[in-house]
Amino acid sequence: MEYRSWNLSRIKELVGLWNWEVGTDFPMCEELFKQNSFDDCNIFIEGSLIAVNQDDQVVGFIVTKRWQDPIDVGISKETGWIQVLLVDRQYRNKGIGETLLRHAETKLKESGIHHIWLGKDTWHYFPGIPTQYREVANWFEKRGYVQGTTEHDLDCHFVEGEMAHPTKDGVTHSLLEIEEKDDFLSFMQRCFPGRWEYEAIQYFQRGGEGREFVVLKKNDQIIGFCRINDSKSPVIAQNVYWASLYQDELGGIGPLGIDSKERKHGYGLFIVKAAISYLHKRQIRSMLIDWTGLVKFYNKLGFEICKSYNSYYKKI
């Protein structure tokens, strides 16, 4: 067995291995894999490896990340991520996964990382280990990883007619205009610094013009937002990663947030209803909300759990 550096030239084989192993549940395409596992500037090349057999065929790989973007949004530089670790089922129990994980942990620690998450990375695939892969969780637990919160994806198919735009006294909603970009980013920095702010910055850097953000305004000031995604979005967003599992076009909802000074007025549920109505205008009926623990909140709108994940971390 040989271990090679992380290399874009092997993407077809890497995606092939992914789909061989987990493609039934999480179908991968090269465009998404390149976006998340090669184009992200936080990919930690030194900690990522490809395992190949004697015939130079890819039989396993690990992708690691650490914060390297010069943008400062408050994400800790002592936190690292293992985005994915996969080994061909025909090559398991040969120490390949152990070697890949040990290499990743060693390199992450050498770079100043003291806390490793499984998933939850920038441009992530999962917020943890999918609950149906219990044997994977057991494997990581034996190697010192501790279970944290349980997160969920929820979906809904709206079979009734188009939802009208909701109204509420004192506030208005609209799709963000590109001219409002600076005001919106200022709002994100003030109210939701960190991951959500970073994802908004990345959205505009990759050509976004505003149609993916529903904004809530009070006295012409932004007090809330909800992101919506579809097949025309400038990036493949996390709530439409697995769109090929759905017969109709899938729309994504979230994240969403309301200024802490404006909560307790029902604005959260209201802006989600608005988001659904905008996707309805685009003739989208199947919708998914990813990585949330707010199951009862979304149940009110007809969303039900479709996938679940247990988060895992390790201190090194």
Low-confidence stretches: none
Proportion of residues in helical segments:
25-40%
- Kindly name the structural category: alpha+beta
Distance between the termini: 27 Å
The first-level CATH class name of the largest domain: Alpha Beta
Helix/strand layout:
Layout lengths: L1 E4 L5 H12 L7 H8 L11 E4 L5 E9 L12 E9 L8 H15 L4 E4 L10 E2 L3 H8 L4 E12 L14 E4 L5 H11 L3 H11 L7 E6 L2 E9 L20 E9 L8 H15 L4 E7 L2 H5 L4 E12 L1
Parallel strand pairs: 4-5, 11-12
Antiparallel strand pairs: 1-2, 2-3, 3-4, 5-13, 6-13, 7-12, 7-13, 8-9, 9-10, 10-11
Question: Can you give a write-up of this model?
Answer:
It is a single chain. The protein is α+β, with helices and mostly antiparallel strands. The chain folds into 2 domains: 2-125, Aminopeptidase (3-Layer(aba) Sandwich), CATH 3.40.630; 155-308, Gcn5-related N-acetyltransferase (GNAT) (Aminopeptidase), CATH 3.40.630.30. It has 8 helices and 13 strands. The chain has helices at residues 11-22, 30-37, 96-110, 134-141, 181-191, 195-205, 267-281, 295-299, and strands spanning 2-5, 49-52, 58-66, 79-87, 115-118, 129-130, 146-157, 172-175, 213-218, 221-229, 250-258, 286-292, 304-315. Strands 1, 2, 3, 4, 5, 6, 7, 8, 9, 10, 11, 12 and 13 form a 13-stranded mixed β-sheet that branches. Helix 3 (96-110) links the parallel strand 4 (79-87) and strand 5 (115-118). The protein is globular and about 65 Å long. The protein starts with a strand and ends with a strand.
